[in-house]
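Researcher: Structure prediction, please.
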Amino acid sequence: MKKTFLLLVLIVLVLPSIGQGVNFEDITIEQAIEQAKAKDKYVFVDVYTNWCGPCKMMDEQLFPLKEVGDYFNTHFISVKKNAEVGEEGPRFANKYGIRAYPTFVIFDKNGELIHMFAGGILDLTFIDKVDVAFDESKAYGALKRRVESGEKDPRVVASYLEALMNTYTTDVSKQVDEFYTTLNDEDKLLKECLFMFDLIARLGSEREQYLRAHVNEFRKAIGTEKIDEMYRTKYRDYFGKIIQGYGGDVTKEDLDDASKKIAELNLADLGFIPPLQKAALVKITETGKDDLLELIKTTAPDLGSNEKDIMLYFIIPGLQDQLDDNEEAELVNLVSDESTKGTISRSLRR
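Model: Predicted structure follows.
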């Protein structure tokens, strides 16, 4: 598997003031475990590389925060290991199959793996991701041991597969497919199984078609807001790829069909879908730009800052060949987050 770095698509931040952050010890992992045992703490390992952009951003923007430091320094002995430099880092990364960066590994005071996940996060929700280590129903290590001991409960197996997927150490698609064939209709409605119908079930796939055919049952079992958000995200990615030129040979008829299917879902809130739909149409037909600009202006005020910035992140660079300088500048000015605004501006070839 090709080594990668991971970062959430867009994160809009209002970060607290910088203070005493995470105290990363310059010691071996074995020494960290010894200290954890002596101090009744856990061990937190941040596995990074020199070329990993999200790793650097977390070092600069997240780990120095007082709130983050208070949490980690209370509960963990923390160390950083470069997966490609020295002896211990590469050996550690190879032992645990780490291929995505950053990856975070958590051990108990006895050196037993209790949790592991990959992906950069730049706000305080990172603490929530780490806190999963203390929930045996969600923590990767605990679930792995339960499944390997023979537990067959679909809740446990589903939770394990999702946790394994989030380590990015292996392609879980075959395991997910095999597990899916063992589920009955009632099992498929379990909240633990929902991840199989999320982004890994592309539009038009067997699992997505099942979700669509039983969407009201899923809404009742899981919650309308959650299911509708899943579909908004699916269509965000679908239209976003088209806008940015990665949609393949998509036709106007394909977009009309997608619009019909969206309407049939009766989503309570369409959010940024209408502007993305329109932008995708403008991309492939090279017509309707003025209507799109008007739609963006009327829709943007009703969106949250994050949704609005994601929408503009797709549209501005994707349609730059059809936008003049003034139109580009006007749209960039709508972006709320300064970091996102800078990323969009740098992507423009003018």
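Model: The radius of gyration is 22 Å.
Researcher: Thanks, that helps.
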